[in-house]
TrEMBL record:
Name this protein carries in UniProt: Adenosylmethionine-8-amino-7-oxononanoate aminotransferase
Molecular-function annotations in GO: 2 iron, 2 sulfur cluster binding; adenosylmethionine-8-amino-7-oxononanoate transaminase activity; dethiobiotin synthase activity; pyridoxal phosphate binding
Catalytic activity, EC: 2.6.1.62
NCBIfam families: bioA, PRK05964.1
Family according to the record: Belongs to the class-III pyridoxal-phosphate-dependent aminotransferase family. BioA subfamily.
Gene (UniProt): bioA
Pathway: Cofactor biosynthesis; biotin biosynthesis; 7,8-diaminononanoate from 8-amino-7-oxononanoate (SAM route): step 1/1
Primary location recorded for the protein, binned into one broad class: cytoplasm
GO CC terms in record: cytoplasm
Length: 423
C-alpha cells in the first residue's frame, strides 16, 4: 500500500469528515517555505501549517539546538525539579511581555494554556472566599477544543453536541466605537459575578480573521479593570510577531492579568503551551493551606526539548533581519490589500501585520462550511500553494522567511484564481 492507503486505514484527521474527505497528501520533507509530497511536488506553505511555523520548515538552527538538548536531557518531571531551558525561556519571555507578567506556567498546547488561565481566575476568587464563576467572552470566539476552551468559544455546530455540558458564558460583541457604551452596561450589570474576561486581541482567527481596533479593546479592558474583572489575553495566534509587533499587547494601553501562548512559541517545531500571570494572581495561591494550590499539570510540563526549541525560535525572532522581514511582509500585505479592495469578487478586506484576509462574494451565506472554500483549496494546491480558506474567507499567514518574490508569486496566483471566478 502507498502512504495514502496506509493513512486511510489507520488515521483519523482533525476537522475532517472522513467519509467524504479526499485522501490526505503525504508530505515527506519540509524546507523553508516549502513542503514536498512523496511525488516530489513542492508547495508554498502560505498558512504556516496552521499558523505555527514562524521561521520555515526544518529550520537548521532550531534543529541543531534541539539535537544538542536531546543528547543532554530529553525529559524530567517538573514537579519538584527544574532545568536550565525552562528557567531561561521564562526569563527571556517575561522580558518581552507587559511588565506585570511575572510568572510562567507550562502546559502542552493552546487549549490547555487557556484551561490553565480559566482555572487560575476562578480559583483566584475561590481562594479568597469569593465565588465569582461567570466568564465574559466575545461572540464567535475560538479558544480551543477542550471543554473549558469550548465553553468560552462561540456556540456553533462545532460545539452543539456538547451544548448542555458547556458552562454558561456571557458573550458580547467585539468592541467598536459604536457599541462600546452598550458593552459597558452589560459588563456593569454582571460585574459582581464575572471572574474574568477572555479575549483574542485584535484578531479572531478561527472566526474568519475578524479584526477589531486596539483603542476600542483598550477602552474595554480599562473598564473591566475598574470593575475588578480579571483579564485573560489569548495570544496563541497573535503572539510572536504575527500582528507586526512582537505581541498584540504592544498595541494596547492596558495590561491583562494572564496571557496564553502556543502555536509560534516553538517556531512550529514542537507542541508547547504557556500561561503567564501577574504576581497578584500567583500570590492568591500562596498559602499554608495546601488546598489553595493550583492543581494542574501535564506529564510533559516544561519539556526540555520544547523549551529549547522555543528559546531558539525566540532568538531567531528577535534578530534584526527577522523583524525587517516581518515589517516587509506587513507592508506588502498592506499594498496587496489595496489591490484586493478594487476586485469585483472581493469584500471586507482586512489586514493586521503579517495577517491578511478577505471574503469571496458568492450566493452562499458566509460560513466555515461555504463550499467555495473547498474549490479554492484544491485550485491553489494545483498551483503549488497551500491555502486553507475558512469557508469563503481567504487569508495569508506566511512564514517569516518567505521572500518578496515568492510573496508576489502567491499574490499573482490569488488574482488569477479570483479572475477565473469572475468569468
Amino acid at each position: 500500500m502507498n502512504l495514502q492507503e496506509r493513512d486511510r486505514a489507520v488515521n483519523w484527521h482533525p476537522y475532517t469528515q472522513m467519509k467524504t474527505a479526499e485522501d490526505a497528501i503525504p508530505i515527506v520533507k519540509g524546507s523553508g517555505i516549502y513542503l514536498y509530497d512523496e511525488d516530489g511536488k513542492k508547495y508554498i506553505d502560505a498558512v504556516a501549517s496552521w499558523w505555527v511555523t514562524l521561521h520555515g520548515h526544518a529550520n537548521p538552527y532550531i534543529a541543531q539546538r534541539v539535537s544538542e538538548q536531546l543528547n543532554t536531557l530529553e525529559q524530567v518531571i517538573f514537579a519538584g525539579f527544574t532545568h536550565e531551558p525552562a528557567i531561561q525561556l521564562s526569563e527571556n519571555l517575561l522580558k518581552l511581555l507587559p511588565e506585570n507578567q511575572e510568572k510562567v506556567f507550562y502546559s502542552d498546547n493552546g487549549s490547555t494554556a487557556v484551561e490553565v488561565a480559566l482555572k487560575m481566575c476562578i480559583q483566584f476568587w475561590h481562594n479568597q472566599g469569593k465565588e465569582k464563576t461567570k466568564i465574559l467572552a466575545f461572540k464567535e470566539a475560538y479558544h480551543g477544543d477542550t471543554f473549558g476552551a469550548m465553553s468560552v468559544s462561540g456556540r456553533s455546530v462545532w460545539t452543539k453536541p456538547f451544548g448542555e455540558m458547556l458552562f454558561e458564558v456571557i458573550f458580547i460583541d467585539p468592541p467598536t466605537s459604536g457599541n462600546i457604551e452598550d458593552l459597558k452596561i452589560i459588563i456593569k450589570n454582571h460585574s459582581e459575578e464575572i471572574a474574568c474576561f477572555i479575549y483574542e486581541p485584535l484578531i479572531q482567527g478561527a472566526a474568519g480573521m475578524l479584526m477589531h481596533k486596539a483603542e476600542d479593546l483598550s477602552e474595554l479592558m480599562k473598564f473591566c479593570r475598574e470593575k475588578g474583572i480579571l483579564m485573560i489575553q489569548d495570544e496563541v495566534f497573535t503572539g510572536f510577531g504575527r500582528t507586526g509587533k512582537l505581541f498584540a499587547a504592544n498595541y494596547l494601553s492596558e495590561k491583562p492579568d494572564i496571557m496564553c501562548f502556543s502555536k509560534g512559541l516553538t517556531g512550529g517545531t514542537m507542541p508547547m503551551g504557556i500561561t503567564t500571570s501577574s504576581q497578584q494572581i500567583f500570590d492568591a495561591f500562596l498559602s499554608e493551606d495546601k488546598y489553595k494550590t493550583l492543581f494542574h499539570g501535564h506529564s510533559f510540563t516544561a519539556n526540555p526539548l520544547a523549551c529549547t526549541a522555543a528559546l531558539a525560535s525566540m532568538e531567531l525572532l528577535l534578530k534584526e533581519e527577522t523583524l525587517e522581514k516581518i515589517n516587509l511582509i506587513s507592508q506588502k500585505h498592506f499594498n496587496f490589500s489595496q489591490v484586493l479592495k478594487n476586485h469585483p469578487k472581493i469584500e471586507n478586506v482586512r489586514q493586521t501585520g503579517t495577517i491578511i484576509a478577505w471574503e469571496i462574494k458568492n450566493d452562499e451565506k458566509t460560513s466555515y462550511f461555504n463550499e467555495i472554500g473547498k474549490v479554492l483549496y484544491r485550485e491553489f494546491l494545483k498551483r503549488g500553494i497551500i491555502m486553507r480558506p475558512l469557508g469563503n474567507v481567504m487569508y495569508l499567514v506566511p512564514p517569516y522567511c518567505i521572500t518578496p518574490e515568492k510573496l508576489d508569486f502567491v499574490y499573482r496566483n490569488i488574482l488569477e484564481v479570483l479572475d477565473s471566478f469572475s468569468n
